[in-house]
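Fig. S4 source data, part A: sequence.
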Amino acid sequence: MTSRLRDVFALSLGTYLALLGVLFFVDSAGVHPIGAPGLVEASAGIALIILGVLSMLAELRVRRFARRMSRTFGHVHSAEEWQVDDAVVRTVIGDILLDLRRATLPEGETELTLLCWLGTIQVRAPRDLALDVTAQTFMGTVDVLGTREEGVIRDIAVRTDDYEAAPRRLKLRLSTFVGELLVVRSER
């Protein structure tokens, strides 16, 4: 688990438990009787509020990118040959499939952030492209350049050996709530 995910998870869980504790205290002190059904409903409400706040924080993070593509339902596929720039691609329900083997990358570092709430993110990169990949899922499978993890709160960070010295570098940030993340290198 990366430090960013660890921080967000700890903050979310801490906030949730603190607010739930306040509800139990208010109920047990008799200040405002809530009852068991009310506590269950309040717990679900607090969880949704926290997810909403985390979504807003993620949105603020991606605003620094000039190029953004959003799709609520459906799939995002890369073109046969395309120019890659710093960008954010996101979908709520669907797949993101990017084939970089015929793509043109500028000199230096390029950053792509791919976000998918429910679905698959798959990136195919040429073998000679230097990669720095951070991939995380709340529930699902993460497979980055042969390093694979399955389950709940999976997080992998992989950097190719030649990253710092390479003339063209790609920083990939992949995230899904429920789904599969796959990054492979292959021949053109």
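Fig. S4 source data, part B ends here. Residues 3-62 form one domain.
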